[in-house]
Structures are given as structure tokens and as C-alpha cells.
Amino acid sequence: MAISRPFDMIRSLNDTKHLWKIVVRITAIWYVQLPPKLGHMEMILMDSKEITCVTVGTTTMFVVGKQGWYYDGCTKCTKKADVKDGPFTCKCGTYNKTSTPR
After folding, report:
1. Does 35 fall in a domain?
2. Is 76 part of any domain?
3. Complete DSSP assignment for the chain
4. Taking the model in full, what pTM does it have?
């Protein structure tokens, strides 16, 4: 029997770890690109305690497909990949032959 770990509240999110388990309802989402700057996606989230926060994710490129948006990232952590093709070393120190869609 597997025991699932509890969900984290948005209020408790910080940079102490790379993976959080949250349940959210996205109340608004939009994409902003101001050339020549990088694009970013902004979301307004609400968790089960009705705490609202604005989240901004900045990346070199978002890809929008039939299943929603994604970005290319490290195969080990959730950090974005700063290269389009070929091998790279992530900021976490992991060598990647290719990036992973996230």
C-alpha cells in the first residue's frame, strides 16, 4: 500500500526544494512577450485555503501544443534549458544530452 505525501500550500512554497506537490485552480493565465526580452507566462492561482498568489515563470521559449504549453528543461530538475538543440549542463550540475519537455 503506497502512502501519498500531503499537498503543499501555495503560501509554503520557497526555494528550499525543486519539487512541490500542490493542488491549484488556475483562475487566469496569459502569455507576455516584450521584444527583445524573453517571454514569460503569468498565472493567478488559488489553493484549497483560498490563498491567491501571482506566479511568473520566465523561460527562453514556451511551446504551445494541443495539450497546453510546455518548456524544454533539465532531465533531472525542473530548471529551463537555455539551449535549443544539443547537449548542455544544467545549473544544477547535470549533463544533459537533450532537454526534456516540462
Report:
1. yes
2. no
3. ---PPPPPPGGG--TT-S------EEEEEEEE--TTSPPEEEEEEE-TT--EEEEEEE-S--EEETTEEE-EE-SSSSPBPS-SSS-EE-TTS-EESS-EE-
4. 0.38
- pLDDT of 29-84, one tens digit each? 666 665 555 555 666 667 777 655 555 555 555 566 666 667 778 888 877 776 66
Asked if residue 91 belongs to a domain, the reply is no
Whether residue 99 has pLDDT greater than 70: yes
Structural domain including 5 reads 1-58
The tally of domains found in the chain comes to: 1
